[in-house]
């Protein structure tokens, strides 16, 4: 039966509360089942050993009381473990981190979360970012009133602002309604089953669990316990799935109320489901906290009984149809609009002033003329000053540098634009601070090399903003063809030729000349002390082109 928004809004959370009560008693049943199985295993083994008949025995009243008490203590202990440092553990597993206030993409997220927080009545929410290419979002909460809305870098890079607002509003709905807290706690509680099963598998050899060896009196017991734990985990997952499906419809309804824009939410759900959803998402244990289940491809989201039973979210297409019905739109129009909006305008790599200047000067040093130099080369001369004699190649006569308005004007601009933080490891001149695909990088106006933080490189790679000219594509295609290029001998690691890290500024901190990865064999210079990476001219753009090219190929295969 299709959901309407009126019906969804009227639903209460009583069912969810009863499910939590049921799960509490299910824990007790699981522990008691393990105890009675262990007891009868030892009785059966003893009967077999001494040739006696085996009779199944239930627990006595005293054993039941002891078992019940022990179960309650274990449940309390597990609850403490599961809820202690709750958000920190989730953030650590997801690899999420606070947004960078100097990143233009992250600034947009910060602003949207603040706006949605106001719209929900001042509910405090912290923005976080997962640095992966996949498109998805999540919400988690704890008992101290702290709540987090997280999005992936892929989502920030590929959604419009309106679509991003709709997704954040959906996650804010989970937080405001209390659904996020329950989902977070339940996800944390049932991780124990996976931990116990993994421990048994690692101890007994995983799939080699067997009762073939009658000499091992515990082999049969291990199998029984293992089967009970598997059953318990399955039941726990079923309960978690049962809760999650209703919550998603309700959160969609609240998001539409907050934004008054069902189309943007429908577009976002379509983009997440059919574009880049599976690019490196976390494991299945936490899929219920995400906007769209990260574990299923679109063709796996069926409506059969088994499909309904073993998934955490309703089919994304069903959610999209509800939203479209509210806006009186059809699916084909939505698909066309999403495809049109996903085609971002690509821009060429920004150039710095002075990189294409053809005017040249001769410069006097110790009464000897040196050169000719262009503007950026003169800026790199450490001994040059405004009282140096210069001679312009296209004019007659000589003059002091401060009398040459073009030359001194450029040097002043160069001084103002230089970040003052780093110097080019090749040219020894100040690097200019530049915004490149939303992050701050440091670029040399002479050699066009670029200094980037390692974390920011990942963000740059994910964001499809910079275009690639034919020269970059040609270089990238040549590297792509030469798949056997990986070789230690191909990279010069002579300490004399290695760059000194511009950030560490210590001759002992030499940047290691290496390939970015064995798969993407673009040569870079990396400092392992501070994580800064130096890209010579074109290296950063070639790396982006290669990764985007192969990612698109993988995307076409999946979809």
Q: If you had to describe this structure to a student in words, what would you say it looks like?
A:
The chain is of the alpha+beta class and 559 residues long. Among the domains are: 5-88 and 181-342, no CATH class; 449-558, no CATH class. Helix content is 50%, strand content 12%. The protein has 19 helices and 14 strands. The strands form three sheets. It has a seven-stranded antiparallel sheet with strand order 8-9-10-11-14-13-12. The chain has a four-stranded antiparallel sheet with strand order 5-4-6-7. A hairpin with a 2-residue loop joins strand 4 (361-365) and strand 5 (368-373). Helix 2 packs antiparallel against helix 10, helix 7 (161-177) packs across helix 11 and helix 18 crosses helix 19 (539-558). The protein starts with a helix and ends with a helix.
Share of helix among residues?
40-55%
Number of strands: 14
Main sheet overview: 7 strands, antiparallel
- Structural class per helix/strand content? alpha+beta
Average pLDDT figure: 77
Supply the number of helical segments: 19
What would you call the shape? Answer: elongated
Q: CA-to-CA gap between the ends?
A: 29 Å
The percentage of residues in β strands lies in 5-15%
- Rg calculated over all Cα atoms: 31 Å
């Amino acid at each position: 039966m299709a959901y309407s928004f009126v019906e969804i809004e009227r639903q209460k959370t009583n069912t969810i509360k009863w499910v939590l009560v049921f799960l509490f008693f299910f824990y007790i049943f699981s522990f008691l089942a393990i105890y009675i199985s262990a007891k009868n295993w030892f009785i059966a083994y003893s009967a077999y050993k001494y040739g006696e008949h085996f009779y199944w025995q239930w627990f006595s009243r005293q054993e039941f009381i002891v078992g019940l008490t022990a179960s309650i203590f274990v449940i309390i202990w597990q609850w403490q473990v599961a809820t202690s440092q709750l958000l920190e553990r989730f953030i650590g597993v997801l690899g999420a981190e606070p947004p960078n206030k100097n990143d233009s993409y992250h600034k947009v997220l910060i602003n949207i979360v603040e706006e949605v927080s106001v719209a929900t009545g001042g509910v405090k929410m912290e923005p976080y970012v997962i640095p992966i290419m996949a498109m998805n979002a999540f919400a988690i909460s704890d008992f101290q009133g702290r709540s987090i809305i997280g999005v992936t870098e892929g989502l920030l890079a590929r959604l419009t602002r309106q679509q991003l607002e709709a997704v954040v509003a959906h996650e804010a709905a989970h937080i405001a309604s209390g659904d996020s807290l329950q989902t977070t706690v339940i996800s944390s509680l049932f991780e124990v089953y996976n931990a116990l099963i993994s421990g048994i598998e690692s101890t007994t050899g995983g799939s080699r669990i067997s009762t073939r060896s009658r000499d091992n009196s515990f082999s049969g017991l291990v199998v029984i316990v293992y089967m009970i734990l598997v059953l318990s985990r399955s039941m726990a997952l079923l309960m978690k799935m049962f809760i999650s499906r209703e919550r998603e419809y309700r959160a969609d309804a609240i998001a539409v109320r907050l934004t008054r824009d069902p189309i943007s939410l429908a577009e976002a759900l379509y983009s997440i489901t059919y574009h880049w959803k599976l690019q490196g998402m976390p494991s299945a244990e936490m899929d219920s906290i995400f906007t769209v289940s990260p574990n299923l491809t679109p063709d796996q989201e069926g409506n059969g009984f088994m499909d309904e039973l073993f998934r955490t979210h309703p089919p994304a297409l069903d959610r999209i149809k509800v939203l479209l019905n509210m806006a009186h739109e059809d699916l084909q129009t939505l698909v066309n609009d999403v495809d049109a909006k996903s085609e971002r305008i690509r821009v060429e790599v920004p150039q710095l002033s002075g990189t294409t200047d053809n005017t040249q000067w001769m410069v006097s040093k110790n009464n000897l003329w040196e050169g000719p130099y262009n503007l950026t080369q003169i800026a790199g001369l450490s001994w040059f000053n405004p009282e140096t004699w210069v001679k312009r190649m296209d004019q007659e006569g000589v003059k002091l540098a401060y009398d040459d308005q073009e030359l001194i004007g450029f040097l002043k601009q160069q001084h103002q634009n230089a970040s003052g933080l780093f110097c080019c490891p090749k040219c020894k001149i100040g690097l200019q601070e530049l915004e490149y695909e939303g992050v701050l990088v440091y670029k040399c106006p002479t050699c066009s090399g670029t200094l980037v933080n390692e974390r920011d490189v990942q963000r740059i790679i994910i964001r499809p903003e910079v275009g690639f000219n034919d020269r970059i594509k040609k270089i990238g295609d040549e590297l792509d063809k030469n798949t056997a290029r990986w070789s230690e001998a191909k990279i010069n690691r002579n300490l004399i030729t290695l760059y000194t890290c511009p950030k560490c500024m210590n001759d002992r901190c030499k940047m290691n000349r290496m390939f970015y990865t064995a798969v993407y064999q673009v040569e870079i210079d990396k400092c392992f002390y501070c994580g800064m990476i130096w890209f010579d001219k074109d290296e950063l753009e070639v790396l982006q082109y290669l990764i985007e090219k192969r990612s698109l190929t993988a995307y076409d295969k999946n979809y």
